[in-house]
Design goal:
By secondary structure, the chain is mainly alpha-helical. It contains 8 helices and 5 strands, in the order αααββαβαβαααβ. It is rod-shaped, with a radius of gyration of 51 Å.
Length: about 240
């Protein structure tokens, strides 16, 4: 009788163990299915974005900081003191985010910031601003062309005046290759004998080839030549 009671107890314990084991395996399988289903579902956009946002304290920690300047298509442009490990997207968040006109397709949000850096976020121009910019560029181009034309005209005028001045000066000079005896005597320190010597020299040498040849004429020394060189011409 005792032997049968022991057998019944052993069978009950075995059944209980089997039941507990089956329940444990079932619950583990259900949890595994839930995990698989959650992994198979696509992440929502807000979850993806939240994974990129570092806690605000990360960039406001004043230890090991750098100073950067941001302007353009952000809502709060200005100078910011941030942690040296901060990235561009964190600075943009601190500066209020992008404006509606911001062009950020070419920006690298993961870019590490550098101390003293200036960051410009490009912006789209409104229609009126585009018109004003086009008009301004046209005005600048017109102004540059007008200024260039005036400069060229001024240069031509200066050159013309210089040529005219040179011609007037040459007209006032005495041509030692064609001047008569009386004309040569109008030169400083030139008397009848020296004038005659000039004419004899030019006839003998088929004219003066340069003003410096006057030094070869008798009675004309260095002092007399210095007085004559700016008052005579050979053309």
């Amino acid at each position: 009788m005792d032997f049968k009671a022991k057998d019944v107890i052993a069978v009950l314990i075995l059944v209980a163990l089997i039941g507990i084991g089956s329940y444990f395996l079932y619950t583990q399988k259900e949890q595994g299915l839930k995990v698989d289903r959650s992994l198979s579902q696509p992440l929502k956009q807000d979850k993806i974005e939240s994974t990129l946002i570092v806690p605000e304290q990360h960039c406001k920690d004043k230890s090991d900081t750098i100073v950067v300047y941001i302007e353009g298509g952000v809502k709060k442009p200005g100078i910011y003191q941030v942690k040296s490990s901060c990235r561009l997207y964190e600075l943009i968040e601190q500066s209020g985010g992008f404006t509606e006109q911001a062009i950020y397709s070419n920006l690298n949000p993961a870019k590490k910031l550098i101390d003293g850096e200036k960051i410009i976020v490009p912006e789209r121009l409104e229609k009126d601003e585009i018109k004003e910019k086009v008009i301004e560029e046209k005005d600048l181009m017109h102004y540059a062309m007008e200024r260039e034309a005036k400069t060229q005209l001024s240069q031509k005028t200066d050159n013309k005046q210089q040529v005219e001045t040179t011609e007037i000066k040459n007209e006032l000079k005495i041509n030692i290759n064609t001047a008569a005896l009386e004309e040569l005597q109008k030169l400083p320190r030139i008397g009848p004998k020296t004038a005659k010597s000039i004419i004899e020299y030019r006839e003998k040498h088929n004219g003066f080839k340069s003003i410096e040849e006057l030094r070869e004429v008798p009675r004309i020394g260095d002092k007399t030549f210095e007085n004559l060189k700016d008052k005579v011409t050979i053309n």
